[in-house]
Amino acid sequence: MSSGNIENIKDIEGMWLGSLEVQGGTKIRLLFNISASSDGSVNATMDTLDQGASGIPVETVAYKNGDLRLEVKSIKGVFEGTLNEDGKTIEGEWKQAGSVFPLVLSRIDENPDLRREQDPVKPYPYNEEEVVYENKDAGVTLAGTLTLPRSEGPFPAVILITGSGPQNRDEELLGHRPFLVLSDYLTRRGIAVLRVDDRGIGGSTGNFSQATTEDFAGDVLAGIEFLKSRKDIDSARIGLIGHSEGGLIAPLVAVQSPDVSFIVMMAGPGLTGEEILYLQSDLISRAGGADNETIARNDALMKSIYSVVKEEQNNTIAAEKLRKLIKDEMENISEDENTNSSYSEADLDAQINAQVQTLVSPWMRFFLTYDPKPTLMQVKCPVLAINGEKDLQVPPEENLQAIEEALKAGGNKDYTVKELPGLNHLFQTTKTGSPSEYAAIEETISPTALEVIGNWISEHTQKN
């Protein structure tokens, strides 16, 4: 709902699209939608198209003598600009967190096409089926999409397992849908693919926030049972492809189920969550230009935080200790470094509380200390483990080495471990590997990565 002066609302009513150029040449498209209600009030929302956020409320809309001001309080952002005489563009600036960026908004008549270049276009040359099945042990219903080749079955099949955080069946993030692209590629190569909404997300039931990696493994086991029940699937050729945390889950499932005939780990961890988080924080901070002193201080704070999570099992006590640690750190930060100085006390409290809730969640408690190596040593089916050379989230050198050593020590006779040059955590072709680039890269998955996965699976699903 707007406040401020509004005159000639018709001048600014409609959709306005502009592109911000932020650090490293990254572009973020902003879409403002301004509309008038019958009672004369003005409603406005903002979408950040390349970051997948939509419907963000614009609390203040002020327009007078051709000058427009839009204020988005939730992200501390303000646009101020002037409408050109032709009424088609508004030239101005976007201000946020102490930075100022030029921004020109252009009037558009229809929603922009958000399709990425690699997103498949219907009609597909294969069949697509909406499916629902149960994880009876957990009392959870899972919803997904099964894509099936049109040739004669029964087909080899794979289940795609998403990375950490609440994900839909396409593993959609920042305008990319990696699992849609991957399932399309594999189905065209003759492999049936099941991709599924995480529990509590999309069409699936259950409580995501109370689930651990082990719970998600139970959901994948239910997917295997579902595929085995179908006549068009060859139950002797069912494999798993796990991305990121999915690469932790796939080995857990393979050890529990003799029906898993192969697994693909895409940026799967070989170290404990705690070890990965230290490496990740260091690499991402350096890519963002942080100095050694800041990195060392960050490292010390993380160590203190993780010791509380590991040692204090009582959530209430752990939460109090964590709140104090984070608040003390904020108070010790110099004014120059403090990016939160413009936030109100209530905003900061809400931020800290959200952070603390994540830290004491069942998922984080499991992830921090779970060591994937003993599980990997028990995996006897064929394994493909791949990582991008520029992955800053699950660093390739340390993780691939740990995976290879565990598979070798366990006596696995068929494994391939590969580092793919120039690719990031999402397997996009990248300059630095920094997560800040993900949205701006048009590519969803490198064709090289798709080919490596496709060729390896084809080799391991051919009938003798």
Keywords:
11 helices, nine-stranded antiparallel beta sheet, single chain, alpha/beta, Rossmann fold, 3 domains, 464 residues, eight-stranded mixed beta sheet, Lipocalin
How would you characterize this protein structure?
With 464 residues, the chain is α/β, with parallel strands linked by helices. The chain folds into 3 domains: 9-108, Quinohemoprotein amine dehydrogenase alpha subunit, domain 2 (Lipocalin, Beta Barrel); 127-271 and 371-461, Rossmann fold; 274-366, no CATH class. It has 11 helices and 17 strands. The strands form 2 sheets. A 9-stranded antiparallel β-sheet has the order 4-3-2-1-9-8-7-6-5, with no helix packed on it. Strands 10-11-13-12-14-15-16-17 form an 8-stranded mixed β-sheet, with helices on both faces. A hairpin with a 5-residue loop joins strand 2 and strand 3. It is globular, with a radius of gyration of 24 Å. The model is unreliable at 1-5 (pLDDT under 50). Pfam families: Hydrolase_4 (PF12146). This is Serine aminopeptidase S33 domain-containing protein. Residues 182-426 form the Serine aminopeptidase S33 domain. InterPro entries: AB_hydrolase_Est10, AB_hydrolase_fold, Hydrolase_4. GO terms for molecular function: carboxylic ester hydrolase activity.
